[in-house]
């Protein structure tokens, strides 16, 4: 499925650069094949493209020194957090140096009174929430994987909680970034709002390492709600489930999570997580608020669901029950893969205006049902975002072609509805082919102009997001 | 108070350009002195700098044609909405053509089912909310002035509701923009979230016309709350009032508005709006939610206020009573000016992390009380944002110098607290001098690189935001 890799020339790191980085980092610079291989892949189907070496950085200053050394000889730099991206973001398709920031896992400052935190880029979301446990605060963005917060900022990640708390776009207050020439900037102060010049924070959020390397992230935090309640409810059909979501959002219920899983996905979840949900289109919910507020939300959502034939709510109130429920949901991708031993998966990620969501999913399901491929639909439907997981035999060209055909139809359908080809996974290698249809040539030219302005030698994760 | 205007060379529009635009626009191209004068000023103290001509555009395509004509001869373009900016944003300090978009006042599409709307840039926020009246939806961002939505996007405006609903940064879904060479782009689709490339929407929001001219804006809308309740409460001192705000925010109360007015500001309001509030530090509140939700919020805020000596709540429930209350608040600027006949005003706009807010305002009040100048403090304190209005005799250099001295101290204090020099007014001419202290030279270089990449001939509102 990888695209756009044809005409690229690897720019191999010269021995002198490797030696210079070895001097700087000692044992923390690795050229071992296994280490390079592990850093040349993410969780997607895109083929491995190992870097020439992996530099395990421990500070912003070290990242700056590595980038400076690479810039001097025009060698690419690819940042690496946990390798959980889904579009080949970390593949070193031009060769070069991978900067692994997983060792930059220090929580720099927690400021409960300002409800914000500054972390090094390698801190993962679970590590952060574990650290926050006694403060009464939490960081809500949850893409499923225990990704690094630097990586989540770089890909503009979101996930199940975004319908209430927003995405990384809304929750990053400031970044420390190493530029393509090794200079270090901070993109903003900690004030909650500012009109002091161009929004550099939002420029780097979602830039996927192509404009600079994110080394520190300052994030908004939220008070842990007084009451949290989760639920699962089966529906008679796809349209009934999705229309329940649409009406919930339009009514303004401040729901924290509202997730759709189709019949195939539920079957896969039951198989993988040993659950016994009815194998029909299903919604997973979570309500956050005061006791009274949650009760009010529940009452509204139950009434809406009942209008659409959804009456059999299963509730999860205790932390353990809620965790079990969301664990099953979070493993949906692996559950899908488990349905075809030896199969590989890839996932669409379209997002449409909510009024078009039912139509978009229903039409897509018709396509999928007419295919022999195993597919599963799961989605952050409160935002209009859903994924189709395609599971195929990587050695069977006909299955690969079928997955590509179905995926292209999902993307075309979403774009025709004024939607986007990627709600949260990012562009990487896999979505570059759709950006012109989504944004138009002239808007892509603006992106390319920004890329050239900030990275004139094209060394920052080259060949991703936007061609130059 | 204007800064940075010294070394600028006006690039006067040649007669041939004026003739070309006259051909294009007929009567809608004006070179009348009064029209030019009116378009060379905003509501600030910055001196008038009239453009060479004013083009009254009626469509995106017309704006594109005007920009193309200007680009061919390297003449500056300054976009103009309602002229209610506060930092000299529209002053044509290099000469050139002003594009007045106030005639682009068409509401292009209201989509209640998606809770969004697309408007031409000249639509004002009051016009939009009037139009939405029967839909049950509203657009919350309220900077006081009845500004154009294009201008609000261009300056990253916010105001009294931002504490709950965010600023223009969070509420613009997509923009149509005319680039510096006259090409037209749309920055994003209408999906609520997207990870499809660089965030062009956020790049243009807050760029103050220096990267392109915004011609259409797609905005999020919100359901009008079931219950709205406003209140005014006096406090024994500045610290008590501000600490009530801090605790309210830290408790996570989803308050819609929480505004601070100091004793001088209340005195000015009483004088100007014929109200009779106690002339002490005061908070103005607004609560949005369900009936039960508002009751719960009120209970929590009353308890917090009582701990800080704020017990005398005056409630406003009916639309008329609430409008009277907020009308008084919105006229705070004019009320302040009324305290010194013939006086001119300018306003600081710092924003700090909320934990530092009480200290910042208390220290600032000490400075102000030691001065003979009339000053008033008013703020969107839920965000950490407040304004000091300095009122002075424009013919008295000592008073001007004193205002500048006090203002510089407020900015320095905010920056030392990891705050910003401008929370919502934008940079324009007046704040350029503070950007290096706020962002550092290297981050400013990134802004300048972006500016040069998108506007290589420096014709888009030149001399504002960032020097190139």
Automatic annotation (TrEMBL), chains A, B:
It comes from Caenispirillum bisanense. The keyword Chloroplast does not apply. Its cofactor is FAD. Keywords: FAD, Flavoprotein, Oxidoreductase, Transit peptide. One of its GO terms (biological process) is lactate catabolic process. GO terms for molecular function: D-lactate dehydrogenase (cytochrome) activity; D-lactate dehydrogenase (NAD+) activity; FAD binding. PANTHER family: D-LACTATE DEHYDROGENASE, D-LACTATE DEHYDROGENASE, MITOCHONDRIAL-RELATED. It comes from the Bacteria. The keyword Flavoprotein applies. Belongs to the FAD-binding oxidoreductase/transferase type 4 family. Residues 47-224 form the FAD-binding PCMH-type domain. InterPro entries: FAD-bd_oxidored_4_C, FAD-bd_PCMH, FAD-bd_PCMH-like_sf, FAD-bd_PCMH_sub2, FAD-linked_Oxase-like_C, Oxid_FAD_bind_N, Vanillyl_alc_oxidase_C-sub2. Its EC number is 1.1.2.4. This is D-lactate dehydrogenase (cytochrome). Gene3D superfamilies: 3.30.465.10, 3.30.70.2740, Vanillyl-alcohol Oxidase, Chain A, domain 4.
């Amino acid at each position: 499925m990888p695209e756009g890799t044809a005409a690229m020339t690897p720019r191999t790191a010269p021995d002198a650069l490797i030696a210079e980085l070895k001097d700087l980092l000692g044992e923390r610079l690795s050229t071992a094949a296994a280490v390079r291989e592990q850093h040349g892949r993410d969780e997607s189907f895109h083929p491995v493209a190992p870097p020439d070496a992996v530099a395990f950085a421990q500070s912003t200053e070290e990242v700056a020194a590595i980038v400076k050394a690479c810039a001097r000889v025009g060698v690419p730099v690819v940042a690496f957090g946990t390798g959980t991206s889904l579009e080949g973001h970390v593949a070193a398709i031009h060769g070069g140096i991978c900067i692994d920031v997983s060792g930059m896992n220090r929580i720099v400052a927690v400021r409960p009174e300002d409800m914000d935190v500054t972390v090094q880029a390698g801190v993962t979301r679970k590590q952060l929430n574990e650290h926050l446990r006694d403060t009464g605060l939490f960081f809500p963005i949850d893409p499923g994987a225990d990704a690094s917060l630097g990586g989540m900022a770089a890909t503009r990640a979101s996930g199940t909680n975004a319908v209430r708390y927003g995405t990384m776009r809304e929750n990053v207050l400031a970044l420390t970034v190493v530029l393509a020439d090794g200079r270090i900037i901070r993109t903003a102060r900690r004030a909650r709002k500012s009109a002091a010049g161009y929004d550099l924070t939002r420029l780097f959020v979602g830039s996927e390492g192509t404009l600079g390397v994110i080394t520190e992230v300052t994030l908004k935090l939220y008070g842990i709600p007084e009451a949290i309640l989760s639920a699962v409810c089966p529906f008679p059909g796809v349209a009934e489930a999705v229309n329940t979501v649409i009406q919930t959002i339009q009514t303004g219920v401040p729901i924290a999570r509202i997730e759709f899983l189709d019949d195939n996905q539920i079957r896969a979840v039951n198989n993988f997580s040993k659950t016994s949900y009815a194998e029909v289109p299903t919604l997973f919910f979570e309500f956050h608020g005061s006791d009274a507020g949650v009760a009010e939300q529940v009452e509204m959502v139950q009434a809406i669901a009942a209008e659409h034939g959804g009456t059999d709510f299963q509730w999860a109130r205790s932390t353990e029950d809620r965790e079990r429920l969301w664990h099953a949901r979070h493993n949906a991708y692996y559950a899908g893969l488990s349905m075809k031993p030896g199969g590989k998966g890839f996932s669409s990620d379209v997002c449409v205006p909510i009024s078009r969501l039912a139509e978009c999913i229903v039409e897509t399901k018709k396509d999928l049902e007419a295919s022999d491929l195993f597919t599963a639909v799961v989605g952050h439907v409160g935002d209009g975002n859903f994924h189709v997981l395609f599971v195929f035999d990587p050695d069977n060209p006909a299955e690969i072609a079928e997955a590509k055909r179905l995926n292209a139809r999902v993307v075309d359908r979403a774009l025709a509805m004024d939607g986007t080809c990627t709600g949260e996974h990012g562009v990487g290698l896999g979505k570059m082919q759709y950006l012109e249809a989504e944004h138009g040539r002239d808007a892509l030219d603006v992106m390319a102009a920004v890329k050239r302005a900030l990275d004139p030698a094209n060394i920052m994760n080259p060949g991703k997001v936007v061609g130059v």
